[in-house]
Amino acid sequence: MNTNSKISWQKAIHLSYHPAYQALIFGALKNLHQSPLQENWDDLVQEARLALASKLMLSDKGQINHSYLYQCIYWRILDLLRSQQRRQSRQTSASADQELTFIDYQMARVYARHGNDRLFNQLKPMLTRQQQAYLDLLLSGYGDTEIALQWHCSRQAVNKLRQRIIKKGRQFFQTDAAKQ
Fold it and tell me: Which of the four, 13, 34, 101, 112, has the lowest number of CB atoms within 10 Å?
């Protein structure tokens, strides 16, 4: 093919505003359960236009199968939505890790304040063997990643174990504080 049969980027963007192509864009967004009421609607429409224009540029004089264009738009928006979801998930996970680290710090302060691990010895009978082993490793200075590697499990599994210990610890320390 010669370069004269291809269309320019500017022409491809202009074509993306044609009603037939608009229907492809809005149809793909609708099938992905996106609506104009969502705050990222304009960004998604713009991404769909860019995906459409890039495919139109590759075609001869802008002529290309509409079902193929629809699938390209759909996949591009789906990839974008999934990457946003992963990013939000990582941010939520990071903030949960920060909260758990803060709680660990508070538990360490309680441990240091009461000395002689009296409270942790009182807490240990409430814990499972695995939770007791985790607490021993944590108090020995191991981090969650190191414990996960040593136990051949995921870091998320170790975090879940820590959350359960913290929950039991909160219950215990609240009951202990109420008694005193």
Answer: 112
Torsion angle of C-alpha atoms 88, 89, 91, 92, degrees rounded to 10:
110
CA 149 – CA 160 distance, rounded (Å): 15
The Cα angle at residue 144 between residues 142 and 148, in degrees rounded to 5: 100
Render pLDDT for 74-133 as a digit per residue (tens, 0 to 9).
999 999 888 888 888 777 666 666 666 655 655 555 445 444 456 677 778 888 999 888
Does 1.10.4030 match the CATH number of domain 115-179? Answer: no
Domain segments of the chain: what residues? 3-86, 115-179
Residue 45 near residue 8 (C-beta atoms within 8 A): no
| Pairwise CA distance, residues 106 & 102, whole Å | 6
pTM, two decimal places: 0.48
